[in-house]
Design brief:
heterodimer, A: alpha/beta, Amidase signature (AS) enzymes, 18 helices, globular, B: mainly alpha, Histone, subunit A, two-stranded antiparallel sheet, 2 strands, flat
Chain lengths: ~500, ~100
């Protein structure tokens, strides 16, 4: 058991402190991170691409020079895994699709260029559901990623690789994206912390578009402080994204530390929506969330029962909106300007060439969603489906506005169950969609939300607690999570894969 | 509820070739999804303005041209190119 290995398994503050005091170097950390990525990729499949040594160690070396010169920032020298939906210049970026199997990013996404500006070290491109369409990482063209808590189970999705990489402590940080729960649900299934920021807080420039009015990039880390650090690097206005907000990002790390160190939570009102505790919720999940609420209350917070009556319509609204937007966004993949080109085409119409390229390049779930969205937008069905869904979306948003008059934070389970087995739901799209039933509403309203570990079920699988706040109040979420994590560090327990690294065993 | 003719029609609209053996499973899953969507009809949305966007108004920028990516960088991802242009196989006919 080495010092580097211990530190890669440690919490954010310990790791940051050791780097800043120059007790370890960024190069040593990156080497261990890359070693772990390669050692686990056959079993976990968390990465579509692990970075080349020369590349990642070059970035780490540059970070060491800056650290030696006295420069300090929250992410300088720390390894980060980037979801393979985010463009990183000169590297393959696949969206886990055959369509982009050979695509090399010609420029950096804004979030990638900000990480590079701040000296974070990109150690690989994390696995995901194809085009971020899925809740289990099983739709990846490169094969499913597995859960570091139980290799027979899914890590959740779509940011499954990003969550697994952190849960296995391959990298202390990762970037995910969240369209309907794709950061929070895998964070919950893998026992880590993940934040979906307010829509517009983080630039979408250079992120492969799925549903443009819902997509948002966010941080994933073992603890809330790490998420605050990573968010601080990537957040803020971006001229290349018209939907990015002009608001300057606050000092998330400082604000989160201050909140964590509060004596009590007096004055904080926690809203508990009764609709999030209905049918389908596993008893162990219900019990763990109950314990978290009790911990908040005993720390001085007040618990208020609230109503989000439109919750039961979030699923159809979400799937109509996201598939409509996806059908438009994915129209660009023609196999001519870039993307998969069929080799079977000999002669025919241009439409047939497009259809063959796309029919071969996209997987089943992506095709299903493109067709669903095309149908919902097509002449004669638009009013009944897309417009109707967008009206109910307005009502969902109104639910939240009313709820936040009575509370500051809404708390409930991230998912109704813990991680399910591979193959368990892959044949039934509706039951798969239901695993996101508590996370979808938030994206429809553009609100920020966070998932943190709240304990474990009888099988030892992590249970996610979801916190939501008003628009632009990510610091309240990060702070509340950091407060809970300081109070009960057992929620930061290592997964078996990470524990094996600590014991010097090859997992 | 979409019929199998609908599925064939929208696949053509979406420029998506479906193999004959893909059609039935697609149709069957489609129907299950639309069954789950039917609950939306319960909601009274009379007079409700639809929301198409998540939050604030979009930020506009000055309409000033910027340097585009280099031609060779863009062509580098094309499945086929020739003398600085995208190249496709010979196509004939088509919808007018």
């Amino acid at each position: 058991m080495s010092r580097i290995s211990d530190l890669l398994n440690a919490d954010f503050e310990t790791l940051r402190g050791a780097l800043d005091r120059r007790e370890i170097s960024a190069v040593e950390l990156a080497k261990e991170s890359l070693r772990r990525a390669r050692a686990t990729n056959a079993s976990l499949n968390a990465f579509v691409t692990v970075a080349e040594d020369s590349d990642a160690l070059g970035q780490a070396d540059a970070a060491d020079v800056r650290l030696d010169a006295g420069e300090r920032n929250a992410v300088l020298g720390l390894p980060v895994a980037v979801k393979d939906l985010i463009l990183t210049k000169g590297h393959r970026t696949t969206a886990a699709s055959r369509m982009l199997e050979k695509f090399t990013a010609p420029y950096d996404a804004t979030v990638a260029s900000r990480l590079k500006r701040d000296g974070a070290v990109i150690v690989g491109k994390a696995n995901l559901d194809e085009f971020a369409m899925g809740s289990s990482n099983e739709t990846s063209f490169f094969g499913p990623c597995r859960n570091p808590w139980d290799l027979d189970r899914v890590p959740g999705g779509s940011s499954g690789g990003s969550a697994a990489a952190v849960a296995a402590r391959v990298s202390p940080f990762s970037l995910g994206t969240d369209t309907g729960g794709s950061i929070r649900q895998p964070a919950g299934f893998c026992g880590i912390t993940g934040l979906k920021p307010t829509y517009g807080r983080v630039s979408r420039y250079g992120v492969v578009a799925f549903a443009s009015s819902l997509d948002q990039v966010g941080p994933m880390c073992a603890d809330a402080l790490g998420c605050a650090a990573l968010l601080e690097s990537i957040a803020g206005p971006c001229a290349h994204d018209a939907t990015s907000s002009k608001r300057e990002a606050p000092k998330f790390l400082e604000e989160t530390r201050r909140f964590r160190d509060r004596e009590t939570l007096l004055g904080l009102r926690i809203g508990v929506p009764k609709e999030y505790f209905g049918e389908g919720l596993e008893p162990d999940v219900r019990a763990a969330i109950g314990n978290s609420l009790a911990a908040l209350e005993s720390s001085g917070a007040s618990i208020v029962e609230i109503e989000l009556p439109q919750t039961r319509y979030a699923l159809p609204v979400y799937y109509l909106v996201c598939t409509a937007e996806a059908s438009a966004n994915l129209a660009r993949y023609d196999g001519i300007h870039f993307g998969h080109r069929s080799e079977k085409f000999s002669e025919g119409t241009l439409e047939e060439l497009y259809a063959m390229n796309r029919g071969e390049g996209f997987g089943d779930e992506v095709k299903r969603r493109i067709l669903l969205g095309t149908y919902a937008l097509s002449s004669g069905y638009y009013d009944a489906y897309y417009r109707k869904a967008s009206q109910v979306r307005a009502l969902i948003r109104r639910d939240f506005e009313r709820a936040f008059e009575r509370c500051d934070v809404i708390a409930g389970p991230t998912s109704p169950t813990t991680a399910f087995r591979l193959g368990e739901k892959s044949d039934d799209p509706v039951s798969m969609y239901l695993s996101d039933v508590y996370t979808l509403s938030l994206n429809l309203a553009g609100l920020p939300g966070l998932s943190l570990n709240a304990g474990f079920d009888a099988k030892g699988l992590p249970i996610g607690l979801q916190l939501m706040s008003r628009w632009w109040e990510e610091s309240t979420l990060l702070g509340t999570a950091a407060f809970l994590q300081k109070r009960d560090p057992s929620t930061l327990r290592l997964s078996p894969v990470a524990a094996a690294f600590a014991a010097g065993v090859q997992p | 509820m979409p019929t199998s003719e609908d599925v064939i029609r929208i696949a053509r609209l979406a420029r998506l070739r479906l193999d004959p053996d893909e059609l039935n499973p697609m149709q069957e899953k489609f129907n299950r999804i639309f069954e789950a969507f039917a609950s939306l009809n319960e909601v009274d949305t009379h007079g409700i303005e639809p929301v198409f966007h998540a939050t604030e108004a979009m930020a506009l920028r000055a309409d000033v041209p910027e340097a585009p990516l280099a031609r060779e960088d863009l062509l580098a991802n094309a499945p086929d190119s020739f003398e600085g242009s995208f190249r496709i196989p010979r196509v004939v006919g088509g919808e007018e």
